Amino acid sequence: MLEIKNLHANVDGREILKGLDLTLPTGEVHAIMGPNGSGKSTLANVLAGKEDYEVTEGSVTWKGQDLLALSPSERAAAGVFLAFQYPMEIPGVATMTFLRSAVNAVRKARGEDELSTPDFLRVVKEKAKDLKIDVEMLRRPLNVGFSGGEKKRNEILQMALLEPGLCVLDETDSGLDIDALRIVADGVNKLRSPERSMLVITHYQRLLNYIVPDRVHVLSAGRVARSGGPELAVELEKSGYAEYGGEATAA
Amino acid sequence: MDLPVQQFRTKAEQELLDLYTKAASALPGANNPFVAALREKAIKTYGSLGLPHRRVEAWKYTDLRARLDEAHPLIAALGAAVGETELETALGKPIAAFPGYRLVLVEGELRVDLSDMAGLREAGAEVTSLAHALEMPPEWLRQTLGQVNPREDDAVLALNTALMTGGVALRLPEGVTLKKPVHLIHLDGTGAPVTMVTRNVVVAEEGASATVLESYGSLGLKGLQRNAVTEVKVGDKAAIHHIKFQREAADALHLGVWLANLGVDARYNAFQLSTGASLARNQLYVRFDGEGSATDVSGAFLLRGKQHCDTTLIVEHRVPSCESRELFKAVLDDEARGIFQGKIIVSPGAQKTDGKQMAQALLLSETAEFDSKPELEIFADDVVCGHGATSGQIDEDLLFYLESRGLPEPQARALLIQAFVGEAFEQVEDEVLREAFSAAAADWLGVPAE
After folding, report:
1. Could you tell me if residue A249 is inside a domain?
2. Which domain holds residue A219?
């Protein structure tokens, strides 16, 4: 279970999260929606442990553990995974090398044996196939020259390989056409399980047609302004974020 | 001796002259008029130039005169014991294990007992110890030594010619292609500080090709002052891949000069990786004498502490339709200083020249420094030339991305540094060598090789 209590966080000295409370039970999928600037991405980055996001007050507990006390890599080992809105391009690092380093680093931190090269290749190929990722793509430098869809599929592949307990998807639908969206959503749905919690951050309801959440939370000015069932997302699609400080037009 | 008078000489400058005066009659080839004349002319050149200093433009960032307090005596070979263990300690496992025709220079002398002269000769090459060849130079050597892209303005080169004691003379006759690379291993010795002056000459005749790796490592000698020159003559349709790996002791002075010229439709690719020495100056001079040829001069240095490494190169396009590429990468930590000076000269008439260079530095500390000075001297109008330089720190966003995937910070940092220099290693054609360099970089970073 993820428990966020009275979370305050600054970016460049400006307070973005202003007392956010959220409880995500194990096995559930919650969506975080809200207008631009409401703190959605800040929440994602705070959970993953990005340095420039300064927590000034409040707590984040994951499986009873103080998440904020851990470094980003320790959080990954503890099962936290952030699917980036804008995955980084790293020339000179072959995707496959990166995947293997990540998997083995996490396994090592969890006290498991490293995967042998053949075992690793077998697992990667199997999971890549589910996401319609060509193995040739994995020989290329990490995300370099990848299309928007390829980058997002690569994020979900990493998620599948690292087997996290908490998946945070930051605007995973941005920049995807409908076919790519479907592949990514299928990949995410395949990872839903009673042991895994997910936080799906999105501006639009579209993604939630494919990844149906158990709960929807609307952020406004750095706090949860409203929570409800999946129907809340549909309602927002019609009414827009006007009453939450967003623009008056429908999202 | 008839030396030009200079107003003032530093202690080291005078000592270098004295080294010659004392040793001249005992240097290899002292009784050969051709060699003696070559040395005599060179010491005069040095005498009038003195040691280069910061007011000499090409030495602006590396004031050798100020940094050299004294010149150590010339090395006397004592027959240092060298086995696989010593090679591994001196060069690191990946380079020591590099499969090639080994030619091992210890204490400035070619050690025939450690070298695969027979293998090279069977493959069709002519190979001898330079010290031996200087006593009675064969015709091909007389036409090459000191004549491959000669530089009258280079004091380091002049000192080398005057004082060279050993090295390798390698000739690849017409059409000979070596299947295995030649590995020229340069080790110092043990004991007290010395000056070591070596010279290699490589001639690839028409259509010949080979990869020549020069590696430099330490056996534990203190205060080495090394001056190492290699001349490479690349004939028509010939190809030489010339690689250097330098990881000498932390207190060593390493002065290296590579001189190359290319005939028609020839290829010369040079690559240098430096991680050693306290002060290293790598000079590369490449000249196109025949049309349709190409060169790639690239490299990387990984430095920490107060290490200083300067790579200065001049690529001279004298004829039309040649292509030159340079890519240098510097990783600098602590108070290390990296320098890259690259000059491309396009002579009048050298139309259709295509020259590009790039120098990039990754600074790992606030006190590290990188100086880059690209220069283009273009006297023809139909050419494509360009240069660029960047200098920056590790991208925190990339670091976070890797850390968020479970890589602990030091490992994530190392991976990004490896990726940065890895791009330069791509210029090395030999795959085994490329992997050995990646392993050497991992070794420098203190992480396991991939």
Report:
1. no
2. 2-244
